[in-house]
Specification:
Length: about 425
Amino acid sequence: MKFNKRLLPIKAHYFFQNGGSAPIAPFLAVIGKDLGFSATIVGLVLTAIPLTSLLVKPIVGALADKFRIHKSIFISLICSDLHPQITIATTKAADECFLTRLSVSTFTPASCLIECSNWQYFVGNGSSTNFTGTGLSAALKLSHNTTNKLIFDVLYFTSGDGELWNSSCTDSPQQFCDLMCSNPLLQEIIGKPTVNDAQVFSYAAFWMFAVCVLIARVATSCVNSLGDSICFKLLGDRPNDYGYQRMWGAAGWGLVAFITGVIVDKMSEGKFVKDFTAAYYLSAFLMIVDIVVASKLQCSVSAKSPNIFANVQKILTGNPRFLLFLVIIVFCGIFSALIWSFLFWFIEEVAAEDGCSDLSWVKTLDGLTLAVHCYLGEIPFFWISGWMLKHVGHAHCMTIVLLAFSVRFIAYYFLTSAWWICLLRL
């Protein structure tokens, strides 16, 4: 196969653009989970991405066509993808293995400063002292835990002058107290956010997360569309060679995702939470390189059709087979969205069932699943896609795709080890 130097910039763009997104984008769902948002809320945010893209893409395309500024918009969108991902990546996540780590020291009472609205419900010995508005030191000992709460026994209180007070258990109404503990792990758990779905829209953290995710992913979606348009222009009368260009994006995505997983796990050794600092720097570096590469692309502008909407209407109403194909595409999008959005969430839950020690390498496994998917799944099929479409036909290819989704989801249901996910990502 003859190498075309003219196509080198678009290959490099696909590699660095996808590689720049890989350290952050695949982890968005678990980042939202670690911020305390439920699967419903995270799914709501991720659902807004394609709907927003559906509205933004035509506007971006119209502006690019009208003012002939395709390259300027293209580079601006890459830049607008950079800052939100930085904000998301540097958001502090909480550790899901706190129960195991904390239980190691359950025999040692923790010293905490507690301030409650009404102390008389808790302080025994017939005390008439009014502690309202003051903080008392307390000795706490972990009694037992469930999947969503910790239960401590309050052994005793210590007043400011050193006097000990036994704790008292009465049929008191629920009290809300501020708690500050000397144990750094326990304090980390106390600060772990848990957001009620009904109240989530009142939290600034939710809006920061949602807005950053929307900006970053919608910008990426627009970059992908413009990049594909530029690619087909460069290919000219050889559109079947698109797979040979696009596979470089899969190469960048899989390679960088795996490297990110290894680095994050390595830098997080001995820490309560996963450290994504390296992922942020790696993403920023690759996106800056992509901006340089994008500036070298040749963005030729072709004459646009004066009857775009009429042409679309003719396709939709004049070909029932196309409508059926469109329905299949929608279902493929739904199935893909489930995997793209919640695969890492699923991996971490399966890994947690084998013990929290398995979570020490879970980001490496996350990255490995993407590497396997890209290098043993996407890239080979990008390479043979032209042959398959020619000899198998697009209709039969879609049938094979639906069958593959069915087998994969059934296998996920029976999965007992997180490592088997690598095989299912082929």
